[in-house]
Design a protein that fits this description.
single chain, mainly beta, 2 domains, five-stranded mixed sheet, 2 helices, elongated, binds copper (II) ion
């Protein structure tokens, strides 16, 4: 299933402005692609699908090789490619669509990146799990670990910055946060978790609303 359309443009700012006018909502700034000379912005299309607008990043030096999607030779924006990053679908679609719109916005979440992620604590003896983040989903969406000290390895396999937060799982009921994770990077967060169900999600932009949320069950 197609979950990703690429709209390549020779002028990202102009195209983003144009789409903002047409859609009545501004695309979410994505990030720069260092070394490739490009930058992107994203428009959610619902159900985890999205449009990626990609164009030259004028703040980078010109890349050594040509920019992807023929951006260097475009004279006008063009639909460049379709991506389908999920091979095994089916898990998220049944439950996700209906319930995502719930408005659990009242919780006081701290958004300070890099706050409580611990560094040197060795993972000896504790439970561990791994989750991958990409646009706009967690893989796996749900997981379970044993209560106690838990180490979570978070991989950003996407093309924009993500992060992972465990809702209210930290001291004083604060979120435990990974801090920003760049594309291709992996970060580890540790937390001492009690039995129960914890929501884990990407705290950046509207990524959570676009599908980057799931349940971590602590047993
Ligand atoms: Cu994200």
């Amino acid at each position: 299933m197609i979950d990703h359309l690429v709209y390549a443009t020779p002028d990202l700012a102009t195209t983003v402005g144009l789409l903002t006018d047409r859609l009545g909502t501004a695309p979410t700034p994505g990030g720069a692609h260092p070394g490739r000379g490009t930058r992107n912005a994203l428009v959610g299309l619902g159900d985890g699908a999205y449009l990626e607008i990609i164009g030259p990043d004028l703040e980078q030096p010109a890349p050594l090789s040509a920019r992807p999607f023929g951006i260097d030779t475009l004279s006008a924006p063009a639909l460049a490619a379709c991506g389908s990053s999920s091979s095994n679908s089916g898990s998220g679609s049944s439950s996700g669509s209906g319930s995502n719109s719930s408005s659990s916005s009242g919780s006081a979440q701290t958004k300070a990146y890099g706050g409580s992620s611990s560094s040197g604590a060795s993972a000896s003896g504790g439970a561990a799990t791994t989750v991958s983040e990409s646009e706009f989903k967690l893989t796996p969406k749900d997981a379970s670990v044993k209560a106690g000290k838990v180490t979570i390895t978070v991989k950003n396999t996407g093309t924009i910055t993500h992060a992972l937060s465990l809702e209210k799982a930290g001291p004083g009921g604060k979120d435990v946060e990974s801090g920003a994770i760049q594309p291709g990077q992996t970060k580890t967060i540790t937390a001492t978790l009690k039995k129960g169900k914890i929501e884990w999600y990407c705290p950046i932009g509207n990524h959570k609303a676009m599908g980057m949320v799931g349940d971590l069950t602590v047993t």
